[in-house]
Amino acid sequence: MNMPFDGAKLALFIGARLAVIRRDDDPRIPWPDYFDLPGGGREGDESPLACALRETHEELGLRVPPEAVAWGKRFDEDTGDKWFFAAHLPEEAGAQIVLGDEGQSWHLMTPQAFIAHPRAVPRFQDRLALYLSGAKGGAFG
């Protein structure tokens, strides 16, 4: 956990559905107008999990308790190491979602719909499928 990393994402299940954010339609950002998961870049010396939870609060207004996180794994990318987590909250948590200042809208969709969607960020489709496959995660927390 003390290894450097650049950012973290969270596959946040609200009941059986996944919370997704439709990215801004701005050609200056990666994956404009695509469906994405909450998360982003590391701030200071925060841990990967703290990064994912902070970003989720900023982007969806939800405070996800660390104990709701069921899985995490580090991935090597060209731009630096990134973490991918999965957490589960009850369906009622959807009523508390408030879109932050990034993205056009938020949606709840089935994980299968996200994985199959032609305008979802491909690397997160793959990572979500890996989690759903039952693959072993890494140490986090």
Automatic annotation (TrEMBL):
Q: Where is the Nudix hydrolase domain?
A: 3-132
Keywords carried by this UniProt record: Hydrolase
Q: Which Pfam families match?
A: NUDIX
Q: Enumerate the GO terms in the molecular function aspect.
A: hydrolase activity
Query: What cofactor does this chain's UniProt record say it requires?
Result: Mg(2+)
Keyword set includes Cytoplasm: no
Q: Output the InterPro entries linked to this UniProt entry.
A: NUDIX_hydrolase-like_dom_sf, NUDIX_hydrolase_CS, NUDIX_hydrolase_dom
Record-linked SUPFAM superfamilies: Nudix
Is Kinase among the key words of this record? no
- Which PROSITE patterns does the UniProt entry name for this protein? NUDIX, NUDIX_BOX
| Record-given protein name | NUDIX hydrolase
